[in-house]
Amino acid sequence: MDTNLLSRISVDPDILVGKPTIRGMRISVEQILRALAAGVTLPELLEDYPGLELADVQAAIVYAAERAAHVRL
Predict the structure, then answer these.
(1) Domains defined for the chain, CATH in brackets
(2) Measuring CA to CA, which residue among 69, 72, 63 is closest to residue 36?
(3) What global pTM score does this model have?
(4) What angle (nearest 5°) sits at the alpha carbon of residue 8, between those of residues 71 and 22?
(5) Closest by CA position to 52, among listed 34, 71, 32
(6) pLDDT tens-digit map of 4-40
(7) Can you state the angle between helices 29-37 and 54-69, rounded to 10 degrees?
(8) Which of 11, 13, 60, 63 has the alpha carbon at shortest distance from 40?
(9) CB-count exposure of residue 57 (10 Å: 0-12, 13-18, 19+)
(10) Residue 3 — pLDDT band, cuts 50, 70, 90?
């Protein structure tokens, strides 16, 4: 687990109803992952979300991987 990247993910009940967000901004991990899954390129994503950094996108992916590792279907 990359704790440096994961430190970019925050959960605050007062921001987006407690969804995991990037550095407390109103950009959720879910938004990032859905955009990537829909085919939005990294340069487009960084342009669409001012303030978002490459490491933030990487953090969202690491967060999702960690969550998926603990889910049993």
Answers:
(1) 3-69 (1.10.10.10)
(2) 63
(3) 0.88
(4) 80
(5) 32
(6) 999 999 999 999 999 999 999 999 999 999 999 999 9
(7) 90
(8) 60
(9) buried
(10) confident
